[in-house]
Amino acid sequence: MYLTWFDGNSWLLEIGNQSILLDPWLVGNLVFGDAEWFFKGSRPQEHAIPAQIDLILLSQGLPDHAHKPTLQQLDHQIPVVASPTAAKVVQELGYTSITSLAFGESFTLNNQVEIQAVRGSTVGYNLVENGYLITELTSGLKLYYEPHGNHSPEIKQFAPVDVLIVPIIDITLPVVGSFIKGRNKALELSQWLQPQVILPTTASKDLIYEGFLGKLQNPEGTIEEFRLLLKQNNLATQVMETTPGDRVEVQLPKRSLAI
Fold it and tell me: Edge to edge, what strands does the sheet with 197-200 contain?
């Protein structure tokens, strides 16, 4: 398995000989509601569009997950699997092969990878978006992704899960509190799923946030603090820190398929 982090929520997953582009923001700025005064995200350097993309996977319909400037540049013939709200975004952009997944529904990519939608982030008052359990069918290797730290207890049924891509620090706003739930939620999730590796997501390394809301965001916690938290709770999980744009190999022993 190879993983490339493009900062923020964006990843390229190479699993089961398939390349899955996850929540891509590769080019252009990130703006909510066309209001740069409220929130604007930018990157010092744009990322090249990957040469091979077998599937685009979108967890939410918000711009930091279904980023229109990036989606407009991608080949609209690439199949898309998405939450219902994200499916509407790519439909409006003219994508031709779209699968909308509700909780519990699954999609199989070229007989190599199964993607199952699970309950993820709460957006607004009552909209729940998707997290994903991604399984390499030949080996049984499992990867779980959820970008806001909203992990449904239903995910326990899939334990053990080999790799987690989740936030491990909190990001807070005044009055609102934590809108990205990392430290304690990631620890609880690790106790549930007993992963071999965690890769931190959502917290930016090179991204620049401006505007009223962007300047109010406050990250709390560090990778080293989370490593210590795992150790204190007798968890052998490895935290794998990555650099935006670097393709890293995650080597894990293959699991036996259940009979």
Answer: 106-109, 113-123, 127-136, 142-145, 163-166, 197-200, 238-239
pTM for this structure? 0.93
* CA gap 238, 256 in Å, rounded: 21
Structural domain that includes position 151? 2-241
Q: 60, 85 in Cβ contact below 8 A?
A: yes
| Partners of 134 in the β-ladder | 115, 143
Number of folded domains that form the chain:
1
Cα–Cα dist 228/106, whole Å: 36
Q: What is the spatial distance between Cα 124 and Cα 118, in angstroms, rounded to a whole number?
A: 18
- pLDDT higher than 80, residue 207: yes
Distance CA 158, CA 213 (A): 36
Looking at 119-123, 173-177, 217-221, 249-253, which range is the least confident one? 173-177
Query: Is 128 inside a domain boundary?
Result: yes
